[in-house]
Amino acid sequence: MFILSKVVGALTDPITVFYLLMALGCLLLHSSRRATLGRRILVVTLGLVAVPAVLPLERWLMVALENRFPLPVTLPEHIDGIIVLGGAANPVVSAARGQVALNSAATRLTALVPLANRHSEARLIFTGGSGSMLEQDLKEAKYIIDFYNQIGFDAGRVIFEDQSRNTRENALFSKDLMAPKPGETWVLITSALHMARAVGCFRAVGWPVIAYPTDYQTTGQSGWKLSDLRFSPGGGLAGLRTILHEALGLIGYRLQGWTDTLLPMP
Prior knowledge:
- Helices cover 49% and strands 9% of the residues.
- It is an alpha/beta fold.
- It folds into two domains: 2-66 and 230-255, no CATH class; 81-214, HUPs (Rossmann fold, 3-Layer(aba) Sandwich).
């Protein structure tokens, strides 16, 4: 299932689909019997690309997902544990360069520090192995240990789970390691865009959590103004790639029973 999810993700990438449709349309143009169909495919494909190239569709969709689980104004006085999901470092690049290579999800890591300092009673776990089909020997957790030590945070306080390959396994393997008891209070840190699927996975394994979203990509405002208009076909397709990845993840996880509902809410 892990490999299938990676294949489906690659085949449904908007940029990949765009090139495949363009190639198909061009090939059909060389057929006297199918030239009309080829022209139609090219026109429809270009028309579909023109919409996200001008209108920030991905931002409007991201706002809805990022706002679904708001950042808590206050947390309970006592917290039993804090969970940080992986996805903030590239283990392949980190291994090749000899230093921790972080990405746009790095706030997941830094958000833990003040929370852990305020709640010394909390048990801490980072969960993240390798999401790559070909580089399973390079585990993200190894480089997160280095990162925390480099910024002066005691990595010895954290349990590092390094076998999970996706969010479902994050929840399962973390629960096995931490054995949370009924009634305990656990905080889950991950990107706001990913929070709905993550919370759904933890609920599905019987582990209720408090959402602590990070790594926002939008301001949270759903309105739009003329300055939002653009002309960037590449930017539009790349943005749709992000939101489509999460949408397919929500659908796929629900179909497999890995989340408690299609679109979890607080």
